[in-house]
Amino acid sequence: MEELSDIPDETIYKGEKIMRVSQEKLDQIKTAMDAEKKARIFKRYQALYLYLSGKKCIEVADIVGITKNAVSNIHIRYKTEGLAGIPDKLRPGRPQRLSEEQEAVLRDVIITKVPSEVGFPADYNWTAGLIAKYIKREFSFDYSIRGITGMFERMGLSYTRPTYVLAKADKQKQEQFKQDFEGVKKTVE
Predict the structure, then answer these.
(1) pLDDT tens digits for 19-43?
(2) Domain locations along the chain
């Protein structure tokens, strides 16, 4: 992380701050900017790059499409935190409702059992809706379908809809059916 002493003093030119940094630091910012995939963070790197390259604050704001204050705030964050201060910080969000032990139990149930083994008759595949019902029954928490799929991501599981394949399907009979069906389609048209 860069220290405040690494950034040269400001110089005044016609009442507007003109910042200068070494070409090496500009190259670091350019590299970070080129690697960034999020548009909002890219704009921050771009604003910082332009500002430290010598453009006026108002010019940078017009070019990048942000306010003059935003350019100033980005520069302040860079001065205090270095490049690490430019991307968004992680926001914790709402606390999890299930404890780690409850999530471990849920994960084990999803992986090792089918719904019919835990009291959902005639169901052999887990769906997000069934898992929501299971959580409501076992842990007394309501979850939306989106909440369940988000929980899957946190637990390292992936959610896919099941596809059904007949285990004892006869390939020859399937081909015969396709040919017969094509013949029927032609007579209807």
Answers:
(1) 568 888 999 999 999 999 999 999 9
(2) 4-85, 100-155
